[in-house]
Amino acid sequence: MKKFELNTESSSSEIFCGTGAFEKLPQILKELHNQKLFIVIDKNVFKYYQRKIEKVFRGISRQVFYYHLKPGERSKSVSEFNKLLIFFKKNECSRNSTLISIGGGVTGDISGFTASVYMRGINLIHIPTTLLSMVDSSIGGKTAINLDGVKNLAGSIYQPEKVIIDPTFLKTLPQKEILSGTGEILKYGLLINKDFFLLLKKRITSLIKNDRTGIEDIILQCARYKASVVQIDENDSGMRKILNLGHTFGHAIESELNYKLTHGECLAFGLKCMLCLSFESGLINQKNFYEYFSLLNLLRTNKKILSLDGKKLISKMIFDKKRNGVNPTFILMKRIGEIIIDYNCDSKRIAASFNKAKQLTAVK
Ligand code: ADP
Ligand code: ZN
Fold this sequence. Notes:
Elements (H helix, E strand, L loop, with lengths): L1 E6 L4 E6 L7 H4 L8 E6 H16 L5 E6 L8 H13 L7 E6 L1 H13 L5 E6 L2 H7 L4 E6 L2 E8 L4 E4 L9 H17 L2 H15 L6 H18 L14 H10 L6 H18 L5 H11 L6 H4 L3 H14 L5 E7 L2 E7 L2 H13 L5
Helix pairs in contact: 3-4, 5-6, 5-8, 6-7, 6-10, 9-10, 9-13, 10-11, 10-14, 13-14
The structure holds adenosine-5'-diphosphate and zinc ion (ZN).
Zinc ion binds next to helix 10.
């Protein structure tokens, strides 16, 4: 098991990563012995791992309270947030209590948000159980709930005390969620360095099949990289934006398809569009462009994405950005690790990039 830290001006988080890390929880959380623990857990995860989870927490404290969260984005609601607060109050959750979230991004987001406001903030620990949350959302302190149909409209930045990543949980993760996490990992393939890119090139096909050989190292490199970026720019005012590589297109695709496809699946295509836009803008050379694109092509693209109308997608994307008070600029790249934020592009070039990405996508 590896351990590293994420230090910001106001907080310090410890991140543990390794197969079997969950069973080591009584040691990792020894300072919490016999304190009140509030476990907010995804119902599917509880179903698969109930015995193991109850056993581990029994070894830590006699005061463990479970809140079972219905899977799915709908649980990131104001009403669920309210229920959680009431649950904490009824069970006399105090400033010395700890909230432990066990699940994917949905569980982590609403747990983090609740932890950040209950009594103006209580201890928070994340135990991510999806590939996407292991490599991305459990690190960096972003929390959110949805409001009036708008995703993540209310939220905060609230760093967890600890994050415990145990890839053993991936054994039961559905295939489409593995693919989703892989999409986010591919983003790191373009951000970290060439060695990591080449490692992914070798491993991606087995990764998709949920062959977990070497997964620990891949997760560790992504999580470490994300932590290093958040340390520099916790509040998303500058460098942290690079973590949104491919997300302008990705989010627009997700929203156009009414969130029927996973985040990572849409992001993977968003990264292709970003590469095309970087190429069309003369930032990336032809050799690198084709090399990077071929890695992304190892992940199958859903036909629904290929049938989207480019023009409609782009005008909506620009409209949404303006409405949110954000400049319709892009995060593009020159080569692996050389990222340019706030790049201006006209809608014609954006549409051309979407179409190019479509053309270069091998339909399997
Ligand atoms: P994300 O991290 O992608 O935001 P979600 O929190 O939306 O993920 O979870 C995606 C789905 O995966 C949900 O249906 C959830 O119940 C399920 N899930 C999460 N972790 C596991 C796991 N380890 N095994 C099986 N299913 C899981
Ligand atoms: Zn993402």
